[in-house]
Amino acid sequence: MIRGAAPDAALAAHNRAARAIGALIEAGSVPDAVSPLRVALLRSVTAEPLTPSLVCALAERGFAARVTLGQLGNIAAETLSAESFVYREPHDVGIVLALAEHVLPGLNGAGGAAIESEGEAFVAQVAQLAERFSGLVLVCNLVPPAARVAPQLAAQTADSARYAIPRVNRRLAELTARYPNVQVCDLEALAAEIGAERFWSKRDLAASLQPFAAAALPPVAGLLADTCLLYKRSPVKVIVLDCDNTLWGGIVGEDGLAGIRLGETYPGWCFQQFQRQLDQLSRLGFLLALNSKNNEADVRAVFEQHRGMVLKLDQIAAMRVNWSDKVSNLRELAEELNLGLDSFVFIDDNDFELNFVREQLPQVTCLKVPEQPWLLPDLLPGARGVDRLRVTAEDRKKSEMYAQERRREHFRTQAGDLQAYLRGLEIHLTFEPFDEAQHLARAAQLTQKTNQFNLTTRRYSEAELKNAVAGGARVYLASLRDRFGEYGRIALAIVRPDENQAPALAPGARIGTPATGPRGACTLDVFLMSCRVIGRGVEDSFLRLVMRRAREAGFDSMRAEFIPTARNVVCKDFLANFGFREAGREPAGAVSYEYDLRSEIAAAAPWLTVHGG
Q1: What pLDDT does residue 109 have?
Q2: What are the beta bridge partners of residue 602?
């Protein structure tokens, strides 16, 4: 919603903006940095008033959306019929929005087996959509009605309608484990947060089957858009924190270790709760960093000695605790962590520092610590992008991985020359042909998050990867470990057979078995690697392993291309230096290459121990 505007004025502004966005789409004038998004909205309610707010919310998050509404009250037919517009026409997102009383007509009765059956039917419809639909299926969970008959009686009965909605919502959540393209939009939590009076419009529901109050339409749209954003890309990776009056109350350099406010009583409890939230986010893969004007020894003393501290120093991926300006510190942190500043959130209590960062580094999201300490625990839950839809094993180990990287850097300074350093690392590279159960979530995450060493920067959702494999694409990953610990899965390649040129595998043969039939060309659709391991011979060695597998599969040539972006200049010359022959250039800067797979393919770097190659 437009800040400071009354609901009706904000909705009028959304209508105008949505029309303008639609005109840009029709004219083909959408900026290159904005991603097109085709949305199908299946609904049991009148959703026309919601659509402009949804278009605007998606535009704020970098999407130019075209929303197509299904027929009112036709969710079952449109999910189950192969002739549904959802399947006939290309869509990136399918939203399912239904009222609880429409899904569960038995809510007005006694509950029992009938209402259980109604809930299972709705879950089955969503599952059917997930199986047939290649894009994101975004299902809104059910919100309890604003009014219920005999609520105290229902609360005493386990199979009553009172408990039917939580059971259905739990079953919807379970679908996300079975179908990687299903995500739940938590409308139930939103309704509880803003309150029934501001969420529902009983008048509009009765008059036109439009259930939402005017004040609720922008938050509902924003929640839907946030879920789309998290599915398509993970915008926040690093949370950078000031220390004084941010991680604790008071100024450690003036108040001393015993004088800062941090502990079980107010206001120290508020800062401790904030730290507990940061601790949780650290375990979900967010990196924590410090950017504080302070004496480093004082800050370290708080981390190491204060009994109220929840966070530990080994959870801090990088720190700049000094008297330099915070903009310079942020730039240095981004360089050290090898991540873009657009993935940073900076939290401080000082308006001057925040405004300076906003002015100099507008790509950084800035959050101000509230003046009232009791509001601090609400800061992170309300921050856009500080969330995840899935958490991989690599995510959970990120802080540990950065601690390992600091030990590697110390070892490098002691090793002398580069060859001695690389051999001393004792690097083991494991080559892994794709296994959906093990690799799907991480493979999709790598395509969505890797920006620097990424030849084409093509993004794939989990569902799109599954479809690519079903269509003949071969997906390969590599994991890495050395004497200091595990890097996790850090490289990905997708090889597609060129159309009408795929070599035939013998019946029952596995990928990797020499092919029969005519040989052909393949395309290196995606080749990427985590920037954390650049310069250790991994990129060349992994590509050689991929090329060997392509040759074993019966391909005699490989096509590849470099598509430039603002952030992948590090791999600009990789293919040419590797030995690919340039085959063409586009005016926009893309360069195409070819490689004869019948020629000799060198072995992996001698300091690498290769497994599975």
Answers
A1: 62
A2: none
Give the sheet arrangement for strand 555-562, strand by strand.
581-585, 591-596, 555-562, 520-529, 485-497, 474-482, 427-433, 608-611
Kindly give, in sequence order, each residue whose CB lies less than 8 Å from that of residue 297, ignoring residues fewer than 6 positions away.
none
Provide the token pair at 503: 């070599």
Which residues contact residue 233 at a Cβ distance below 8 angstroms, ignoring those fewer than 6 apart?
Answer: 448, 449, 459
Contacts of residue 566, Cβ cutoff 8 Å, sequence gap at least 6: none
Q: How far apart are CA 33 and CA 461, in angstroms?
A: 19
- Between CA 394 and CA 141 the distance in angstroms is 29
- The two three-digit tokens of residue 604, written as one number: 């992996």
Question: Which among 310, 304, 302 is positioned nearest to 281, based on CA atoms?
Answer: 310
Task: Give bridge partners of residue 433 from the DSSP assignment.
Answer: 476
The Cα–Cα gap between 138 and 181 comes to 8
Per-residue pLDDT, averaged over 163-189, amounts to 94
Under the banding of pLDDT at 50, 70 and 90, the label for residue 500 is low
Q: Buried b / exposed e across 474-485, counting CB within 10 Å, b at 16+?
A: bbbbbbbbbebe
Sign of CA pseudo-dihedral 337, 340, 344, 346: positive
Return mean pLDDT, the chain: 90
pLDDT given at position 4: 46
pLDDT in tens, 36-67: 999 999 999 999 999 999 999 999 999 999 99
Dihedral sign, Cα of residue 313, residue 252, residue 239, residue 570: negative
Opening angle at CA 36, ends 31 and 42, nearest 5? 150
Cβ atoms 511, 553 nearer than 8 A: yes
Which domains does the chain carry?
Answer: 7-232 (3.40.50.1110), 238-378 (3.40.50.1000), 414-611 (3.40.630.30)
Question: At 462, which amino acid appears?
Answer: E
253-269 pLDDT tens trace: 999 999 999 999 999 99
Q: Quote the tokens at residue 45.
A: 């309610």
Give the distance, in angstroms, between the CA of residue 336 and the centroid of all CA atoms in the same chain: 22
CA–CA separation, 570 and 63 (whole Å): 27
In this structure, are residues 279 and 290 in contact, taking their beta carbons and an 8 Å threshold?
no
Residue 318 in tokens: 């990088």
181-234: pLDDT as tens digits: 999 999 999 999 999 999 999 999 999 999 999 999 999 999 999 999 998 877
**SS3 label, residue 164:** helix
- What is the band of 395 on the pLDDT scale with cuts at 50, 70, 90? confident
- Please, are residues 198 and 209 in contact by the beta-carbon 8 Å criterion? no
Question: How many Cβ atoms from other residues are within 10 Å of residue 464's Cβ?
Answer: 19
Please compute the mean of the pLDDT values over residues 392-398 and round it to a whole number: 79
Q: How high is the pLDDT of residue 299?
A: 98
Establish whether the linkage from the previous residue to 235 is cis, with ω within 30° of 0. Answer: no
Residue 495 · residue 551 · CB < 8 Å = no
Whether the full predicted model's pTM is greater than 0.90, yes or no, is no
Report the SS3 class of residue 455.
Answer: coil
